[in-house]
Amino acid sequence: MTSLKHTGRSIYLLFFVGIIAISFSSIFVRWSSADVAVIAMYRLFLTNLLMLPFIWKYRHEMLRLNFRQWALLVASGVMLALHFLLWMGSLRLTSVASSTVILALEPILILAGSIWLFKAKVNRMMIIGMGIALLGSIAIGAGDFQLAGTALQGDILSLLGTIAVAAHMLLGQFLRSGLSAFSYNFWVFFVAACTLAVYNLIQGHAFGGYAATEWGIFLLLAIVPTIFGHYLFNWLLQYMNATTVSMGVLGEPVFSSLLAWMLLGESLSTLQMSAGVFILFGVWVFIRYGKTKPQIAPAEDNIVGNTPAKPTVV
C-alpha cells in the first residue's frame, strides 16, 4: 500500500514538473527571432533526434501499426502542428498572459469531448475545481486583453490553437490505450514536424543560416517544454484521463506570467499573482476530488514507455 501511495505521489510530482516545463515555451519563443513555423519544426525534429537512442527497443511496435492507428497518428500530429503554429504565432501579436490564459479553455473542450466520445462522468467537485481555476486564469489575462491592434488577432490565434491541441489530446487518449508512450510521441512529433516542414517549404521560409543562439533556443524548446512537457503529459495518459492531464495547462498562465515578469519585463499585478494561487488551488481540487485517481501501471513500464495499461476515463 505504501508503494502504491508513493507511486501516486510521484505521478502528481511529474504532473507538476510538466506544468513548469510547458510554461517555459512562451519565453523561449519570445527569445527567438525566427519564424514561429520554423521554431516549431526544429523543436519537434530535434525532439525526435533526442529520442533516437531508444528507437531500437521499440522498432517492432512502431512498424506494426494498423491502418486505424496510422490514421489517428497522422490526425493527432497535424493537430499538434496546427497548435504550435497558431499558438506560437499568437505570442508575436499579444502578451504572454493573454495568450496563455486562452489555453485555459482546453480542459473544458477536452471534458466536453470526453463526455461525448468516452461517456465520461463528472462530479460536483471537479466542476468546482475547474471553475475556480478558470476564474483565476481570466483574472490573470483580463488586464492584458485588448480589442485593438494586433492583440485581438493574437487572441484569436491562441483560441484556434487551443481547439487544435484539445483535438490532439483526445486523439491521443484513443491511441494511448494500445501504444507505448515512446512510439506514440515519436510518430506524433515526427508527423507534426513534417507537416510544419511542408508549410515552411510552401511559405519559402529559410531552413538554415540561423545563428548559434537560435539553434540553442530550438534545442531548449525540444528538451524543456517538449520532452519534459508534452512527452510527459502524453505519458501520463496511461495514469490519468485526457481531461485531468489537460488541467495542467491551467497552471501555465501562472508560471508563464511569472517567467515573463522575471525574464521579459512584462508587468504582473497583485491581482494576477493572487489569481495564480486560485488557479493552482482549483487544479488541486479537480485532481484531489475527481473520480479519476492515478492508476498504477505495470511495474515494467517506465518514462520511455512500454505498452501501458489502458488509460482511465473520468
TrEMBL record:
InterPro entries: AA-Vitamin_Transporters, EamA_dom, EmrE-like. It is found in: Endomembrane system. Keywords: Membrane, Transmembrane, Transmembrane helix. Residues 11-140, 154-287 form the EamA domain. It is a multi-pass membrane protein. GO terms for cellular component: membrane. The chain crosses the membrane at residues 12-31, 37-58, 70-90, 96-118, 125-145, 151-172, 184-203, 215-233, 245-264, 270-287. It comes from the Bacteria. Belongs to the EamA transporter family. This is Drug/metabolite transporter (DMT)-like permease. It comes from Paenibacillus amylolyticus. The lineage of its organism: Bacteria, Bacillati, Bacillota, Bacilli, Bacillales.
